[in-house]
Every structure is written in C-alpha cells, then in structure tokens.
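Narrative of activities, Objective 1.

The group set out to show that a structural description can be obtained from nothing but a protein's sequence at a throughput compatible with the screening campaign. Below is one input-output pair from the validation batch, recorded exactly as produced.
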Amino acid sequence: MGRPNDASSHAAMSQDPDPHLGSTTHVPADADADDLLESIRHATIEDALERLSANTGGLSSEEATRRQATHGKNLIESGKKRSPVLAFLSNFTHLMAILLWVAGTIAFIAGLPELGVAVWLVNIINGVFSFWQEARASQATEALKKMLPAYTDVIRDGQEQKILAEDLVPGDIMLLAEGDRISADARVIASSDLQVNQSTLNGESNPSRKVADAVLEEGLSPAEIPNLVFAGTSVSEGNGRAVVMRIGMDTEFGKIASLTQNMQEAPSPLQRDLDRLTKQVTVFAMCMGLIFFALSMFVVREPFASSFIFALGMVVAFIPEGLLPTVTLSLAMAVQRMSKRNALVKKLNSVEALGSTSVICTDKTGTLTQNEMTVNHLWTATREYDLTGVGYAPTGSIESQGTTYRAVDDPDLELLLEGGLLCGNARLRAPEDPEHRYEVYGDPTEACLIVSAQKGGIDPAELERRMPRVKELPFESRRKRMTTVHALEDPIDGATRIAFTKGAPNEVVRLADTIRVGGRTVPMTEELRARIMEANDGYAADGLRVLAVAYRPLGAQAAREGVPASLSAYTPDTIERHLTFVGLEVMMDPPRPEVAAAVAECRRAGIRIVMITGDYGLTAASIARRIGIVDGDDLSVISGFELAHMDDTELKRRLAGQVVFARMAPEQKLRVVSALQEMGEVVAVTGDGVNDAPALKKADIGVAMGVAGTDVAKEAADMILTDDNFASIVAAIEEGRAVYSNIRKFLLYILNSNAPEAVPNAVYLLSGGAVPLPLTTMQILTIDLGTDMLPALGLGTEPPEQTVMDQPPRDPNERLLNRRVLVKAFLWYGLMGSAAAMIGYFLVNMLNGWPGVPLAGLADEADPVYIQATTMTLAGIVFAQIGQVMNCRTEKTSVFKVGLFSNRKILVGIAFEVVLIVFLTMFPPLQGVFHTAPLAWQDYAFLCCIPPVVIAIEEARKAWLRHRDAARAKRGGAR
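Output recorded for this entry:
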C-alpha cells in the first residue's frame, strides 16, 4: 500500500496553521548550536516551535528576510585557496630542489655548462610533474557543496513554496518527501513512516526512522536522535515536516566542512625523510669539498683556482642528482602496479606513506563487510535453520541438521518466511549485468527478508497477489515494531484478513498469547517465552540482528476481542495484541570472504587494525572477532558517548590494547586518529561518508571507497579503492613498502660509487701528487649524471620482495640514510668498486710505463698513457657498478632467485652505460670533453671480470646472512 508524499499529505499531517504567520522574535545569532540541539530535541513540538519563534503556518517573507540578514545564507563556506602560482613555485623551492639548483650552478662555475643544464632539467621535470599531481588533489569543500540540494520545499506565507536551499532560515518549515535531500538541520514536527538515509554522516546504510515526539534518552550522538534530521542526508521513505534550527556552517554538515577545510596536511614520512637526507647530503658534500680543497691547497700546493674547481667537482660528485627522478619513478611505477590491484593513488607521496603504515583505522560496513544484509539463521519453536548464500541474490538454501527445507515442508517455516516478506516495504531489482549487485529500494533489513523467503521457494509476486496488503501500521521507535494487514484469497477459519507483525523480539513476545509449534497453535507459556529470549540473547551476543515475526487472523474471534471491522479504524492498540508468535529471523552484514586473510597478513606484517564504525558496539566486536582483528577477551568497546567523557591520557591507554570504537561522530574519529599519531603511529584511515572526510585528511594516508564512497570522501582521501575491499589496502601497503625499499636500494647504489670517486682523489692528495690524479672532475660527473642514472632508475621499478610483509612497519624515526646504509655503501660496496678502479688504473700504468703528468692532470697537453689510465679508472668504476646494481636488488635473497635478467629496465641501464663508455673512449669529440682514450683488449678483458667477481662476493655474504637467520630462527623455535 503506497504512502502519500504529495502536498495534500503534508497538509493532512500538519497541525492547524497559526493565523499569525511568522514572528518578529529573532533566534539569537550567537546561540550555541549544540545547546540549541539538546533543548530542541527534548522539547515537545509546541515548545520546539516556540523556542525557534516558528509556527506550523511557516514564516512570512518579510520575517524570513529579516532572519537571513541576521543569520546569513544557508551555504557551506569555502576556505582560502592556495595560489596556483605559489603551489607551482613550491615544487622548485624545497630543500632537494634548492640543492640541485646549487649543483647546476656549480657545474656552470666549473666550466661545465652542459652538465649544469642537465641538473637543472632534472629539477624542472620533477617540479612540473609534482605540480601536475597536486593539481588533481583534494577539492573537498566543492564536493561538500554538491551534496546539498539547490532547492527545497517550505511553507512560507501559509503556502507551500519551492525556494533556493541557500535562502532557508531558522524557523522555516521544510516539507520532506521520499527522495528529497535535506538542506538544513531541523526538528521533525510531523512524520508518516519517515525514514532518512544518514550514511553521509554515520557511514551506515540502514535508514534511520524519524519521529515527531520529544526524545529524552541521553547518550545519543546527533545522528542517533530520532526527532532530528540533518543537512546532506536524504529521505529514503515516507514523508514529514521539520522546522529548521541550524543552517550553513552551524549544521553538522557545516562542522564537517569546517574540520575538512582547516585540516593542515602534514608532510608524508617520505617527505620528512627526503628533507633529512637533503640536509645530511648537503653537510656531507660541503665537508668533503672543504677537506679536498684544503688538501689540494696545502698538501699538493695546487693554485687556488685549480683547488677550488677540484673541490666544486667533489661537492657535485657527492650530491645525488638522480634521487628526485628515481623517487618519482619508483612512486609512479608503484601507482601503476597498485591500479591493477584496485587502488588508485592521487598523490605520489601517499604510496610510500602506505608502506610506513603501522595502524589502519577502518570502518566496518562495506569495507570489512559486504554491505548486504543477509539472513543466516531462522528459529522456530520446532527447529533452528541455517541459510546458505550471502547478499541480495536469491541463491542459497535453508538447511537444518543436514536436511534442506522448502517453505512447503514446514508450516511454521512457511508462515515465518511469508510474514517476514509481507511485513515490509523494501523492493529488490535484479541487475541487467550478472556481475553487478541487486539494487535495494528501501530498508536493507527488510530486503534480506525477501531473499530468505525466496531461498525457501516463495515467489514474492505470487504471495502478494494471494495476500494483498490493505493496511499498514508503520514502525515507530516507541513500539519497536510494524504491522501490515492483508486480505486472504482463501479464508482461514472464517478469517478474511491476516495481520503480520515484525519487530524487536521482546516487544513481539510480550504481545503474544499463543505460539506455532509443529504446525499447531498452542498457548504461550513462560517456558516457551524463556526459550525464545534465550535464543534471541544468544544471537545478539554474536552481534547478529534479530527480528521476531508474529501474526493474528482477523475474523469473528478478533471481532469479539474488540477489533473494528473498518480498516480505517485499525490501530496498534486494537491489532497488535493476542498475537501468535511464529519465529525469529536472524541477520548480519557478512564479512567479505577475503578480508580474514588480509587481516592475518596485516598481523604478520606488524600492522594493527582499529575498527571505527557507526554501528552498534556488539555488532562491531562480533565482526572484529570473526575476521581476526581481535582475539581473546581483552577487548575494549568504546562508544561515542564514552569517548566524549574520556580524556586523552585514558584514550591513549586504551588505544595501546585491543579496541573497537562504535557509534562515532566525525570529530571523534578525527580525535582517535590524532591520538594515534601523537603516539608515534603512521595511520591509514578508510572511509566512505561525508563524516569521514576530516579523518581522511588528517591521516597519514586517507583511503576512500570508490564504489560506495561519497565525492567528499574521495576528494579528501589520498587513495581510492575501486572495489571497496580491505584486502586491496593490504596489497597497496605491500607496494608502499616496496617503494621505500627501492628508494633505499637506489640510495645505496649511488652512494657506493662515491667511494670509488673519492678514493682516487684521496690517493692523489695523500701522495702529495706523486700518484697522478686517477680520476678527473669531468669523469666523476660522467658517472653521477651519465652511467649511474639509468641503472639507478631501474632499481626504482623492482617489484616487492617475497619477504616484504614479514617485517614490522619501519620506525617513523628511522632514516633513509642510516648507519647500516653508509657502512654497506662506503665500506663494503664502495671498497669493492675502489679496488676494481685502482687496480685498473695501476694495471694500465704497469703495462705502459709510469707517465709524467702535470699537477691535477688539468693541463691541455697530458700524457696519452695518463689519459688511458684515468679512462681505465672510470671504466673500472662503471663495470663495478654493473655488478653492484645487481647486488642492490635484494637485501638477503639471492639475486639468482629473483632472476638475474628479470628487471628489463636495469638491463637497459647496464647496456646504456656500456655503450656510453665505448662512445666516450672511441669517439674523438667526446674524448676531448671527457679526457678519455681508447682501451686495449686486455683492458676490456679485465673489466669484464669485475661484475661477476663483485656479484660472487656479495652472494657469499647474503648466503651467510640467510644461514645465520635460519640458525637464529631454529634456536628461537627450540626455546
């Protein structure tokens, strides 16, 4: 039976209009919005209207104009936007960019303009790319505005009018009909089965029923208060009227907008690391430059100009010019891989932040669960049934003790399924594409009752034809039940109508005089009541939702019991008594099947999961246990009401253990995230509603749902899941960890060439010039910006190692350039490269006779043997780097296990540096620029031996490390 939602129905529900339209008493502009909310929801309809200086006949146009002058327009205000010019320039003025500008300038001063241009181009390309990424970032406030309707229906001057939503003022009477978006926070003053979808505020898809009565219950979050409606939500069913009490930025919606606008984004862990690294590299490079300048001036007695250029060359040599492009490429490649795993990243730095994540704050509905209510148990006095299949697709069966049942096999089961199906207003529509989900119209709880009936073989259309609805007594929060009356095609014991009631089990059982047992109606006893409530309590303890179904034939007996014959006279008081209890329908939003494995992987990786949901605590705790987020009995379930009365010290203490947060308000979710960050955690937050936007922006990495998520959530987030699946977050974390590992591999690789570059210069200086300079400044820059660059970029594309999720999250205070990296780069890889380079240098001298060379080898005319020897030093470093790039690909795993030739980009880089060395040594114009000479076949024979020797030495070290770890694990297992 349809429910009216037109203008006439609004008029029918209203109280008698006040002849005095409007009031000249203004609502105080400085009234505290929260105090106003509390006072209005406790008040009767008449008191609420009086406090808002309103009446059921609406405001006059003149009064509305006066109030708008006081309160302003009903708009979500935009925060100050950053200038695009400043945003663009910021990509060229951070520490690493400044260092590269300086490096390029040094190259120009040193007479190497082509290298200066190359360094500056690296900076420009990275800056433009970063700006392009940021240009696609969050526009959360604009998305918030789109969620508010442009027009709304009100009563003004005693008549129904359609006005711009921005012209609403406190005291306006809004008309609410099915499908309407709500434009302001308001107090309900009339309701006809009014149900509001508040998922934008609380993240839960189940509609909330709204009533016009005063609500005195305490401990409710705003979204839980049944006589209030809020801006940004929508009417899913029924209709009603509400008096506006808050507009614009004072609404719950406005508060979220304000929180989102004022949220300052903190730099990502990678950005902080790169800033620290830049400072370290700057200090290190300047110190090395000063040391070599002093040695050149006072030990070798070089002229000031020569010593200065020599020192500048060393400074440039120690600046990792390829760091920014490698970081960018690593992040970009990870973004591509993640997109194939259903995760779209908006900001490159967010990739690495995911890899650092130590805590995931996740909502429940749609992320951990399927967001499809499913009946999984049925209970009658005769037996308990289990239902297979999940979701709204009518696939599955009803089973009990190994036997499959159809509705026709058990009359009690048939009545239970029929009553659950008929006593509801939801509808299901099958998808045109089999891969898509069924669409639900109405309450998801009622929709799953339809599915349970279909699993029992009941055809909804046929049942509604045989038992058409003739009357509905809508659900009320006070009664906690609803009833529908149906005409019977075939009278039962003289009854031509039947009433089905469904609702809270304790309420339905209280009204039942009889119960169905084995197809017969028998008197209800205290023992049977106890059995029903015991079953209900057991399901509820598991976090399941339970609805009871009862019926009452409306015939001669009902007439004797005072039931009127006229349908219009049917009321809850006359119909909802002397009921016959049938059974219980038990339902839940089932967990996604792949989530349990993803949660287990998080636990293995040392990542904590904290559930923050708008659902009830018992349900949230049940899901958390079911999928493995928590184990044991030491679980704290904290409600929004409890959190509001908890100080930060207690909150952090509780966060140190296993905890689930339920019925959370937006600012409370934000508070939890902030507390975790203050505890030193790197926090990822998932969300899909408007209520999640502030926490998504505050988090180190905000993750929005792509399917169910609102535009606001998507704009506020750093990453969007295209499948709304928690398992995709875990896959993204794996990629994020790989990014950090790859950046460190790159850093290790470029630093290990610094030692072979510095050692020849140290030999020259410490020998007082007796050993001619084995490597010129131009050759050093050739390594840094030429041969090293492409293999290093190839390292940035390495896929995650198999053991990447076996490690705990890295300490946020751990640095990219730590002692272990320095020792490995300079004292292990660096010494191997230095040995190869110096052996090659002295080998050429031994074979060709010791040359006589001007100081520093900077004269225009240099001995050909000397030039050949320095060329050999350069080539020795390059060929050592060929072996080292392979070594840097893994931490402990053998490179042969991952595949020596599996990374094509590294192979291309190696081929490029070999070809480059050949060109530099064989092409006369380049020989003059880079001070190189052709090498003999014996030289190339020596060079070809360097990579396999370097790889073999490192493989021996990795094998020893694996053996050591296995022995430690064995000893630990024995204990």
